[in-house]
Amino acid sequence: MKFFSLVAAVGLATMCANVAFAADHEVRMVNKDSEGRTMQFEPAFLKIAPGDTVTFVTTNPGHNSESVEGAIPEGAEGWKGRINEEISVTFDAEGLYAYKCLPHFGMGMVGLIQVGDDTSNLEAVQGARYPGKAAARMEELLGQVTAGAN
């Protein structure tokens, strides 16, 4: 009986240790970022580990965060936050995740999260539809991936 208790305790400790190593990141939804650009996520690019969580915080009203259709890893789950509401998303699948603020998408309010080192869906992210200023902003963010930025 003691052996089974020991095995259960080790298993529980292992599960808790894996959860303890997951990091929490914050992305602010702002009307103006620290570089003076309007309608932005800050930071707009993150490189995180699988299992990490990102919380999108409405610093200024009128924003949301949602995944860009066709611009997340195959089999990964997208998300859609409500306007003016904080949303937390846990990223388990490796790859690139493009996201937007729906009301300000055409104004360039997009962001990019790289989970792990897998960039095999880079072409899908590049090929997604980005209206107006969002196309140029996403190109900037994708440049950080190809440059190996963190």
Automatic annotation (TrEMBL):
Amino-acid positions noted as binding Cu cation in the UniProt annotation, renumbered to this chain: 63, 101, 104, 109
Domain Blue (type 1) copper, chain residue ranges per copy: 32-115
Recorded GO MF terms: copper ion binding; electron transfer activity
Cofactor comment: Binds 1 copper ion per subunit.
Domain of life the protein comes from: Bacteria
Subcellular location as annotated: Periplasm
Keywords of this entry: Copper, Electron transport, Metal-binding, Periplasm, Signal, Transport
Cofactor: Cu cation
Stored Gene3D superfamilies: Cupredoxins - blue copper proteins
Signal sequence interval, chain numbering: 1-22
Any one Gene Ontology cellular component term annotated for this protein: periplasmic space
Name assigned to this protein: Pseudoazurin
